[in-house]
Amino acid sequence: MPDSASSRRLQHQIALVTGGSSGIGSGVAEALAAEGATVFVNYSHSPEGAAEVVKKIEAAGGKAYAVHADVSKEEEVLAMFKEIREKCGTLHILVNNSGIQDDSPFLDMSLEKWQNVINVNLTGQFLCAREAAREFVRRGPQPEISKATGKIICMSSVHEVIPWAGHVNYATSKGGIMQLMKSMAQELAPQRIRVNSIGPGAIATPINASARDTPEEEKSLLTLIPYGRIGEPADIGKVAVWLASDESDYVTGTTLFADGGMTLYPGFADNG
Ligand code: NAD
């Protein structure tokens, strides 16, 4: 958990982190809770993972609930938002984090693989963002709690700008998230709803465990990271806290890359 000297920048706020039961999502959930937010830890297939994150947050003095939904299914997303409203009355922060990879060479990519990834990574973010925005508008401003009426943070990737052979479904979903985020930010700004993305580089989580199996693979991954280390979920948690807090009140429609310089074209560092 972040340091105990936390300034509780998210006190009295209710947050939902989709896919909060592992990896980056759990790091974000813990960081938001350490700043005073009550966090709903969404899971689709791992109630144990979500329960563990809730336990960790509670042990650190925070407040959290596990909440189930497959974010690609509209009826499950609607039920999840209903549950949040019934339990806590409203929502202030959505972290749209759920995502999957289902890789294949392009020539062999089945429609099923394409759709699986688009359904979770892109449609899932649309469905949750729409329900969050509807709730923010229904509830209206609460300036005593936060300057913005609501905050939406989309978990994108460096692959919203870096093409990725063998992963066209994933890269397309992240490119789509960029325009989803920017278009929502433009449309919702008059209601004082801020929408931003985080673009992580390589963060050590289950999604990319196979790319770090051997020391050789890890070394090869590090050649893509000028800063010389693989990121941790807590690196992303800190960015999410800032984007959710009033410190970033004038920031909307932006992707904040947290990638150790991966988007800096490291291949050109030695004169190209
Ligand atoms: P992860 O596999 O630990 O997390 C993904 C989460 O999404 C899991 O909790 C999983 O249960 C959940 N999820 C999957 N399908 C779902 C569904 N249908 N409904 C609800 N939840 C579902 O991996 P991670 O690295 O923590 O990934 C989190 C996000 O960060 C993803 O959007 C991923 O694309 C993004 N990201 C990760 C990295 C990285 O290097 N790890 C880099 C860039 C972006």
Strand content: 5-15%
Query: Any idea how many domains?
Result: 1
What would the CATH topology be? Rossmann fold
Record the strand order, biggest sheet.
3-2-1-4-5-6-7
Mean pLDDT over the residues: 96
> How many angstroms does the end-to-end distance come to?
41 Å
Q: Please provide the ordered H/E string of secondary-structure elements.
A: EHEHEHEHEHEHHE
* Beta strand count: 7
Basic shape:
globular
Estimated structural class = alpha/beta
Radius of gyration: 18 Å
- Heterogens: nicotinamide-adenine-dinucleotide
Question: How many H/I helices?
Answer: 7
CATH superfamily membership: NAD(P)-binding Rossmann-like Domain
Q: According to CATH, what is the class? A: Alpha Beta
Estimated helix fraction = 40-55%
CATH second-level architecture: 3-Layer(aba) Sandwich
Sheet with the most strands, sense and barrel status: 7 strands, parallel
Task: Report low-confidence residues grouped into runs of 5 or more.
Answer: 1-5
Quaternary state of this entry equals single chain
